[in-house]
Design a protein that fits this description.
Largest sheet: none
Distance between the termini: 31 Å
Structural class: mainly alpha
Number of strands: 0
Helix content: over 70%
Radius of gyration: 16 Å
């Protein structure tokens, strides 16, 4: 029985393959706008009843807003982004939702006034990052946090030990 539990528990704690695809898609699209359609396809494969759908659709819209040069489109995508992250939280609070909202709010221009959750999300992420499974996602989150202007040097050192 112990052998069975030792084998099955790590398997059950791994994120679903669709979640890994969304997570990878987000980081790829953030680094390369040509990867945005791949992220959108991954989002569209998710269930619209799941908070993760709205979380990563919000991430998609935020990247669209970031990459477009049209002020009108930037504002349109930004508003869609805000709406979807709010929908995600109305369904469930999660590490992914907190991280995506943190990325959006910490990168948003201050004149938009969309930064009210940055400190709470940062605190949550720093408290819960240790419990994330080792792998590409955790590595990418840590890399983002180390480049982020919102964390102090002491917090960045703490991230390295997680």
């Amino acid at each position: 029985m112990k052998f069975f539990l030792a084998f099955i528990i790590p398997f059950l704690l791994r994120p679903a393959p669709g979640l890994e695809r969304l997570r990878d898609g987000y980081f790829n699209a953030a680094a390369n706008k040509e990867s945005l359609p791949v992220l959108l396809k991954s989002v569209e494969k998710s269930s619209s009843k799941d908070h993760i759908y709205y979380c990563y659709r919000s991430a998609y819209y935020s990247l669209e807003a970031n990459f477009t040069s049209s002020i009108t489109k930037k504002l349109k995508y930004f508003n869609l982004c805000k709406d979807d992250i709010a929908k995600s939280f109305s369904i469930k609070d999660s590490f992914d939702a907190r991280f995506i909202r943190f990325c959006i709010q910490s990168e948003s221009p201050s004149f938009l006034g969309y930064n009210q959750n940055v400190e709470d999300d940062k605190k949550y992420i720093l408290q819960h990052l240790k419990s994330e499974s080792p792998g590409t996602y955790k590595t990418n989150v840590k890399a983002y946090l180390n480049k982020c202007n919102v964390l102090t040097e002491k917090e960045k050192e703490r991230v390295q030990g997680l």
